[in-house]
Amino acid sequence: MVDGEAGAVVVNYGSAAGELAACVTAAGVADCSWLTKLELSGRRDLVAEVVRRVSGSGVAPGGVLHAVSAWWCGLDDGRAIVLCERAIGDRLRALLNALAARERGLRVADRTSEWSVIAVVGRCAAEVLARLGVYGPAGDPRSVTPFTAANAGPVPALWLLASDHRAAAVVPCSRAGEAWLAIEEAGRAAGICCVGRDAVARYALLDRRTPAAPV
Asked: Is the pTM of this model over 0.90?
């Protein structure tokens, strides 16, 4: 483990190479709570315009966009959630707060200390998500949006579905342990194991269909 501005971060559980191999052949579950989590809210049109201004593109409700080294995730009620590394988050927070000071009705909240992020990565990640019910009753990834609400066991979660092999659940910190255990239970048949930050980052480089982002 290492200590950072976001608190203790698990780099690996003894062998980053072994954990990467587990992701390549099965699946891994990782705590990515070191990520900055920002929430934009306000009038639907205003939030959409701010996202376009900062990211260079729009994001539809239920959609995701990777731009300026961050994931931008749209919600049906007009809110948007931003997930990114801490250094990027510091710059985006300052920029968004400056815009909020000028744009009446725009609110920017830092939810980093309130929300946890649990990543599911690997060749069998889709199998784990299907067992959790993230893909709906039919178990079809095409039936859900890239940013969708679905439980992680008993815990309500917002799921960022980066690809068939990479996903992340945003859950309340107070219930992160319950969500983690539910993911482990759902992934047991797929050989899921705990992995650290290094394995998540290295696996992202192998998933060429999506940006090499931390989730």
From this structure: yes
